[in-house]
TrEMBL record:
<feature type="domain" description="EamA">
    <location>
        <begin position="186"/>
        <end position="323"/>
    </location>
</feature>
<dbReference type="InterPro" id="IPR030184">
    <property type="entry name" value="WAT1-related"/>
</dbReference>
<dbReference type="GO" id="GO:0022857">
    <property type="term" value="F:transmembrane transporter activity"/>
</dbReference>
<feature type="transmembrane region" description="Helical">
    <location>
        <begin position="77"/>
        <end position="100"/>
    </location>
</feature>
<feature type="transmembrane region" description="Helical">
    <location>
        <begin position="278"/>
        <end position="300"/>
    </location>
</feature>
<feature type="transmembrane region" description="Helical">
    <location>
        <begin position="12"/>
        <end position="35"/>
    </location>
</feature>
<dbReference type="InterPro" id="IPR037185">
    <property type="entry name" value="EmrE-like"/>
</dbReference>
<feature type="transmembrane region" description="Helical">
    <location>
        <begin position="183"/>
        <end position="203"/>
    </location>
</feature>
<comment type="similarity">
    <text>Belongs to the drug/metabolite transporter (DMT) superfamily. Plant drug/metabolite exporter (P-DME) (TC 2.A.7.4) family.</text>
</comment>
<dbReference type="Pfam" id="PF00892">
    <property type="entry name" value="EamA"/>
</dbReference>
<keyword id="KW-1133">Transmembrane helix</keyword>
<protein>
    <recommendedName>
        <fullName>WAT1-related protein</fullName>
    </recommendedName>
</protein>
<feature type="transmembrane region" description="Helical">
    <location>
        <begin position="146"/>
        <end position="171"/>
    </location>
</feature>
<dbReference type="InterPro" id="IPR000620">
    <property type="entry name" value="EamA_dom"/>
</dbReference>
<feature type="transmembrane region" description="Helical">
    <location>
        <begin position="306"/>
        <end position="324"/>
    </location>
</feature>
<feature type="transmembrane region" description="Helical">
    <location>
        <begin position="106"/>
        <end position="126"/>
    </location>
</feature>
<feature type="transmembrane region" description="Helical">
    <location>
        <begin position="47"/>
        <end position="65"/>
    </location>
</feature>
Amino acid sequence: MEMGMQSRIKDSLPFTAMVIVEFGEVCMVTLAKAAMNSGMSNHVYVVYYNTLGTLILLPFFIIHTNRVNRPPLTFSLLSRFFVLGLLGICLLQLCGYAGIDYSSPALAAAMGNLIPAFTFLLAIIFRMERLNLRRSPSQAKSMGTILAILGAFVMTVYKGPPIRIFIYLSSPNQLVLLQQSNWVLGGIFLAISCICSSAWSIFQTAIVKEYPDQMTVIFFFCCFGTIQCAILTLIVERNPGAWVLRPGIETIAIVFAAIFGSVFRFRVLTWCLCKKGPVYVAMFKPMQMVIAVIMGTIFLGETLHLGSVIGALIIALGFYTVMWGKAKETHMVADIVCGLESSTENTHLLAK
């Protein structure tokens, strides 16, 4: 009885952790959008919060290094950590927050459902996934990928009439101001960030399997990514005033993102990728849509549009079609394994 209870608790930990991550990501993005609406540069925001997050990780990394006999670091490993930083922080976050700055957290959450589709395509390219269009699982995954990309295209190109559901919390001292959004450009940036996220998930999973010291991987990945972001932002952001950090929503957004985004989120994602794989992690992305729409409408005064609803529904349909195909494929593999085991047992019995 106790063993069964412990097993259920152990199985529920990745689920609970991913729910917390998805909710926290929406909170982080909503705060970032509020900071950008108040005038903060999205590039500077990424540099500041990753710098603070890396500094917070540093003492934990030093303690971990002194306590654990980790595998030796090679130039090849450090090079791969560098690529992880480029994909997971420099390109992903700079493009992602640029897209949020031009659009909204709701669009970012909906576009996040493209990640399973891009992951599937990259897995086929790198021969990590087999595609056989004669079988229903491959047909479902292919159709789901096409639907997800179509839904993202609808959300990006067609905004549609507004749908007013909530009255947002406005006041004379409101923290954020509404801005004119460039929906198409924002959607393009967000699509690029989704591709980078998919590539990062596949690459991170492969590296952690080869080098299982997760703390070392996370620290060097964050450190390299922060340095890359800082160099690129110094080139792009020529206005010295953009680097001035003002108290209020900007400081709150940076501190929350550093603690949650750099320290907690990457640790949990790396652990879940190691335990369950990239597909399991991607399954929780649709949850962001509902949370982001509610929070964005209430706290940022954003207006929900018909194009966003239609596109999000198409993306969600494509996402769950891919998941159905993946589950069907896993079930078929399990049946084949059971059949082989049964055949082996019968052979042994006949031999006796």
